[in-house]
What we know:
abc type-2 transporter like fold; 2 domains
Amino acid sequence: MRNPISLRRLVAMARKETLHLLRDPRSLGLAFVLPALMVLAFGWIITFDIRFIPMAVYDEDRTSASRALADAFTASSYFVVTRHLARYGDAEALIDRGDVRLVLVIPPRFAARLAAGGPAPVQAIVDGSDANTATFALTYARGIVAAYSAKALLGGRTVAPRVTAETRVWYNEQLKSSHMIVPGLIAVIMMIIAAMLTSLTIAREWERGTMEQLAATPVHPAEVIVGKLLPYLAIGMIDVLITGFIGDVVFQVPFRGSILYFLAASFFFLVGTLSLGILVSAALKSQMLAVQVAMVVTYLPSFLLSGFMFDIVNMPKPLQIIALAVPARYFITLARGIMLKGVGPSVLWPYGLGMLLFGAIGLVAAVRAFKKEIA
């Protein structure tokens, strides 16, 4: 008959795993340094805010009207004029090298056509190799030209429109990409912890030959799994606090909701992800193979199919169906709801329940997958 679970043996297993961690300071340091570096890198480098698009102007008219149109682009803050071209053919070389994203071509007699009240077409050549930037550049350019055209029709006067749209942005008033990215990073960081650290735990016992010693002890499989999980759970919770602190101090990401609810959801989600890493480690018994498989089943889905970087509704239908099984998708929704919107359990309780179930299922699966028997 199997021995009942003992708190003393569980603590002993946790102490044993902690000693393994302390003897590998490189992995331990990486576990704390990598999350901070990721937050800074994603927050500073990756952005969807399109500003100061480099552009060139080829002005064949050289009148005050043509200069006013070019100035309207610069005044918008969406564009910055870096080149004034002397020949039309120079535009191709600039775009080929990526020096500019847009070339504004103002033909001769532009001002004369405006004064005559007729159409005065201008040309915008856009680099479409970056479809996202090209789309924004075209949208901004059309808006600027439309505003300039309306002002020209009124002889330079401005009048109040009869219909106006009063817009208000909630939860991310300045539309900063970092406010969207930082909450999602917590889920990605948790997945990295699972893939990088816990996938090695059981496999390490097999490769080092210490599983025989473990099999000879009266320790319960649940004590082994929970004992090995606890040190990484502590690391993961510290990483959550580090991520949140950097997001608040460096990127001014607001935290409007309940920190206790957020930490509780993070705790159960972390239990699930760590258990998944241990499950892979127990099933494969090879450290190298376990890390590779854990990266595929944890980190990649959380990065690509969770809505962290890419909107799920824009994905093909088969990927949208697969994304339904990615727990990080629901945790990211919960994190953004708590941090940015300030909503609590009354709204987000289904997501909180999902994190609880994910943690419980992951832990049970890891315990059942672990076998002490030596084949």
